[in-house]
Amino acid sequence: MTATEADRDSNTGSLASAADATTEPSKPLPKGVVLGKDGKPCRSCSSKSAFSSWAAQANASLKKGTPPTTRPADDCPPDVEALGRGTWALLHSIAATYPEKPSPNQKDDLRGFMRLFSKLYPCWVCAEDFQSYMQREQVRVDGRSDFGNWLCEAHNEVNRKLGKKEFDCSKWEERWRTGWKDGRCD
User: Fold this and answer.
1) Which residues are in coiled coils (predicted)?
2) CA–CA dist 173, 177 (Å, integer)
């Protein structure tokens, strides 16, 4: 793909998004880049470093002589790691505020939310994996402790797949609801 002046953003002068570019067929994708179902690199499924490597590779012929930006990119779409951190924070916070004795409607609402969440999650690979987990391990909604422990187990399943340390599920309420006993959250 070649760049034209029409590809440049009128406000910044930058080239069109790297996600719209295609890599040369002879160049393999950088390690960690996950392709979306459309065959293009998936920003939500790849780490920022992997996606940035691909974008640099894709734009190499488009941006000759343009120095890379050095400012932090806090206003960019989240990568798979930022998305995961934010998602787990939200889900564990929902568990922490879920009633100890939910009504039948609250149980149905939580089941429905988790079902839809697993279908709408931006990283399709992650979404399909979570759907599979939910088929094997049905979401437990009988109370705060029940859901919180189920969610911690689901999170640990992901941690194992990513080679990360597992969390001690006996401490999930301390981490997400009451704060650590040593007072550092007070």
Assistant:
1) none
2) 5
Q: Which two tokens stand for residue 159?
A: 């941690």
Residues 103-137 pLDDT 10s: 999 999 999 999 999 999 999 999 999 999 999 99
Q: Is the pTM of this model over 0.90?
A: no
Query: Residue ranges per domain, the chain?
Result: 30-64, 80-178
Topology of domain 80-178, CATH:
Four Helix Bundle (Hemerythrin (Met), subunit A) (1.20.120)
Q: How far is CA 118 from the centre of its chain?
A: 12
Tokens of 10: 């009128």
**Helical (H) or strand (E) element with 160:** helix 144-161
Q: Which of 72, 38, 25, 37 is nearest to 52 (CA)?
A: 72
